[in-house]
Amino acid sequence: MRALIFAAVIAVSGCSSMNPLDWTHKVEIQQGNYVTQDAVAKLKPGMTRSQVRFLLGTPLLTDAFHADRWDYKYSDIKQGKLDSSSDKLLTVYFKGDVLERVEGAAQPAPPAKQLDASMPAQEAKKP
């Protein structure tokens, strides 16, 4: 009986997060709005809320006490730890229904995908 209990304790301790030999896969978690500098550059004072929403997407945070402010927050967790270089907050301020100003930092534009030169070009369709 003791051997069975000892085996059960060993098996359960293998599931513990305190295990120094923890080789479990850590999921990369991206949360929030990935707002690029290119999108922010297109914002102009005087734009309507719907135009801003079209460019940046729906804000992650809207505050009932600050109806004239939208917060676009983004964070990235890699290997179970917050990547501080990707932790950004962009705040958009409105006056009524019109964009007044933008504060904060945006993400850099994602790198452009390069075409592989070894891939054949798509053939033109013949009628």
The beta-strand count equals: 6
CATH architecture assignment name of the domain at 25-104: 2-Layer Sandwich
Order of helices and strands: HEHHEEEEE
CATH class membership of the domain at 25-104: Alpha Beta
Computed over alpha carbons, the radius of gyration is 24 Å
Structural class: alpha+beta
Global mean pLDDT: 75
What fraction of residues sit in β-strands?
25-35%
The percentage helix is: 10-25%
Overview of this structure, please?
The protein has 127 residues and is an alpha+beta fold. It is 20% helix and 29% strand. It contains 3 helices and 6 strands, in the order αβααβββββ. Strands 1, 2, 3, 4, 5 and 6 form a 6-stranded antiparallel beta sheet that branches. A hairpin with a 2-residue loop joins strand 2 and strand 3 (66-78). Part of the outer membrane protein assembly complex, which is involved in assembly and insertion of beta-barrel proteins into the outer membrane.
From the structure above, extract its key features.
Beta-lactamase Inhibitory Protein, Chain:B, domain 1, alpha+beta, 6-stranded antiparallel beta sheet, elongated, 6 strands
Write the layout of secondary structure elements.
Blueprint: H1 2-13, E1 29-32, H2 37-41, H3 49-56, E2 61-63, E3 66-78, E4 81-82, E5 88-95, E6 98-104
Antiparallel strand pairs: 1-3, 2-3, 3-4, 3-5, 5-6
Quick synopsis:
The protein has helices spanning 2-13, 37-41, 49-56, and strands spanning 29-32, 61-63, 66-78, 81-82, 88-95, 98-104. The chain is an alpha+beta fold and 127 residues long. Strands 1, 2, 3, 4, 5 and 6 form a six-stranded antiparallel beta sheet that branches.
